[in-house]
């Protein structure tokens, strides 16, 4: 049984909890102590890969961090999976939590279940704090990551989809600095699904991009098999038919 400290009448504040040795990982939502869900392998690996990708592409004055608290306000500190910080705006050795004015990008990886926080509450907090860029990473039906990229519209104070709103197979963007990487690693659910075993939305929109990126990188394409049997299978697959309009996983 998890023992939670007694809630003060006005709710908790971050500075009251940050040094407490609580026996669980936690978040604060409007001063309420919330136990964080356990990590799954897919989320952990995708976070590590994005952290490495952003780190390799990094240029001054930016730093790339993982699981660090951003001080939206004292009752709603937020810990994105990955964030990019402008080091001219904060001393990372003493800034705790990190001030939103120093944050250039926040990345949230949607959990396998639920995920309303990364769809609604967290982006609203980030936008209100003036953070310029937000990525929401989701697992498509075949097990590969999709990166939804948003830019802050300063006039409305809300996030809008970037010109390339969803990155499948290849992540390529210029903000907060140029980044280009493949998104072909499938890290949960065991063996890759065959094309004719996938829902139509993946067949039509995501899988063709993943196969093309895999071939460009010299990696085996998802669902690959010896050439003859592969040709027979793909030639009869709905991948070769026109998709319905607006289909997306």
Task: Looking at this protein, list some descriptive labels.
alpha+beta, 249 residues, globular, 24% strand, tt1808, chain A
**Main sheet?**
6 strands, mixed
The helix fraction, in percent, is 10-25%
For the termini, the CA-CA separation is 38 Å
CATH class of the largest domain: Alpha Beta
Number of alpha- plus pi-helical segments: 5
CATH topology of the largest domain: tt1808, chain A
Order of helices and strands: HEEHEEEHEEEEEHH
* Structural class designation: alpha+beta
In the sheet with the most strands, the strands line up as 3-4-5-6-7-8
- Arithmetic mean of pLDDT: 75
Question: How many strands in all?
Answer: 10
**Spatial shape:** globular
What integer value in Å does the Rg equal?
Answer: 20 Å
Topology, element by element:
Layout: H1 14-17, E1 26-29, E2 32-35, H2 41-57, E3 62-66, E4 82-86, E5 103-109, H3 116-128, E6 133-139, E7 145-153, E8 158-168, E9 170-173, E10 179-182, H4 200-216, H5 227-235
Parallel strand pairs: 5-6
Antiparallel strand pairs: 1-2, 3-4, 4-5, 6-7, 7-8, 9-10
Summarize the structure.
This protein is of the alpha+beta class and 249 residues long. It is 24% helix and 24% strand.
Structure description:
24% of the residues lie in helices and 24% in strands. It is built from five helices and ten strands. A six-stranded mixed sheet has the order 3-4-5-6-7-8. It has a two-stranded antiparallel ribbon with strand order 1-2. It has a two-stranded antiparallel ribbon with strand order 9-10. The two termini are 38 Å apart. This is Putative restriction endonuclease domain-containing protein. InterPro entries: Nuclease_put_TT1808 (IPR012296), Restrct_endonuc-II-like (IPR011335), Uma2 (IPR008538).
């Amino acid at each position: 049984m998890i023992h939670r400290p007694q809630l003060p009448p006005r709710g908790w504040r971050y500075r009251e909890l940050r040094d407490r040795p609580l026996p669980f990982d936690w978040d604060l939502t409007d001063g309420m102590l919330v136990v964080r869900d356990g990590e799954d392998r897919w989320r952990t690996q995708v976070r590590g890969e994005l952290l490495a990708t952003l780190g390799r592409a990094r240029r001054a004055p930016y730093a790339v961090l993982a699981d660090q608290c951003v001080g939206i306000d004292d009752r709603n500190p937020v810990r994105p999976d990955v964030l990019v910080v402008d080091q001219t705006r904060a001393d990372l050795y003493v800034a705790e939590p990190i001030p939103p004015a120093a944050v250039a990008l926040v990345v949230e990886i949607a959990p396998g279940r639920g995920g309303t926080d990364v769809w609604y509450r967290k982006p609203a907090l980030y936008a209100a704090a003036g953070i310029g860029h937000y990525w929401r990473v989701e697992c498509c039906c075949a097990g590969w990551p999709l990166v939804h990229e948003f830019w802050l519209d300063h006039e409305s104070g809300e996030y809008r989809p970037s010109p390339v709103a969803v990155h499948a197979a290849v992540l390529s963007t210029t903000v907060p600095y140029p980044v280009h990487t493949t998104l072909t690693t499938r890290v949960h659910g065991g063996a890759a699904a065959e094309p004719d075993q996938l829902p139509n939305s993946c067949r039509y929109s995501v899988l063709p991009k993943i196969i093309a990126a895999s071939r460009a990188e010299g990696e085996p394409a998802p669902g690959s098999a010896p050439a003859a049997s592969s040709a027979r299978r793909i030639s009869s697959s709905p991948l070769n038919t026109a998709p319905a309009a607006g289909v997306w996983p």
